[in-house]
């Protein structure tokens, strides 16, 4: 996610041959009835791409030890990755800086869901709700586990705002989301006490307190590392419905969510149901007073979960990406979905790899292997980088990231979560496809504007699975 470009366009002609500079066999990209150039039904099956890899498909790119070392390096070097285990006391100036860095009063005109301009008085009220005057001279952090999928917000409000009066998708106060079981440190509260400003591993932002259950520091911080556990490897999994414990019933678990297993005898009834066909996980729930309780919950054996991260292979990267195919684009994890950077980071999380949350931070992370581009980069340099692309590589342009899934002849293809999708019609004019979801497209025809391809505007190519 972040810094959305409104000029995401997909250019093609009915039969188009591009880039004779590449050594691979030239192919023609035709437009099927869907209008998505170069993409036929067979290419929407992950096995189509996995089979093109041959014996290399299941080669382990990084083993568990190497991934652990890479994550340690990420935590040490990347400033967007935060240590949730905060000092016992945090100075007032630090807490204030964290909040004001995020929650700066908007200076541009914003619109609400009724397409009306948000009044200045409303924005002033949001600034007041920050309660900056109530930040203690020294803050003692409190700790909590997330109990349900929780929106991370710029301000302590559910008010949705947009940059223009025709948009109702890109909520400018929506930052990201946290999933059940994620530990956070609470460092401040809104004036009405209904929101908490939290520090999580990948973000600092506002969360409604109803999504948090407060507990002892050691309990909260230890939950994320407890073993044995189940890791969600499907796009979405839910706990089993139960009327016995509503807080543990039908809870949404997104890809990458990790929950410890509960030590329950195999014949013990759990929430009114025998667990022999399920995993019994530990689920954080919120008591009436906001306190944390760890309760057993069931996740069906047939659900897409794993006892450990999936092996980091090209085949698994592709298969995990395709589990989201067709999901609606969700800016900042809105709509119980995700955006482009959330999409790629959750794919890699299912294989145990930690990435920054936003596109800009992913593209320039000091701990990742990357090729950077700027205005001085030549066309030849950019095309050489494209020629070297492998499945799993991440291609960044301003505000967007795409994941490479393979080649057809001289055409690299990507899967990406995009709210755009415009192509040239047969008359040469740009026409929106409104892809607005996880989509497969060729890379080379993608156009940033009338005069520039996406590859002309690349800021970075990142290869996550690379040994030092």
Automatic annotation (TrEMBL):
The entry's keywords: Hydrolase, Protease, Signal, Thiol protease
Q: Which InterPro entries match?
A: NLP_P60_dom (IPR000064), P60_peptidase_YkfC (IPR027017), Papain-like_cys_pep_sf (IPR038765), Peptidase_C40 (IPR051202), SH3b1_dom (IPR039439)
The protein's matches in Pfam families, at most eight in alphabetical order, are given as: NLPC_P60, SH3_6
Residues of the signal peptide: 1-23
Superkingdom of origin: Bacteria
Domain NlpC/P60 stretches: 311-465
Q: Which family does it belong to?
A: Belongs to the peptidase C40 family.
User: What's the protein name?
Assistant: SH3 domain-containing protein
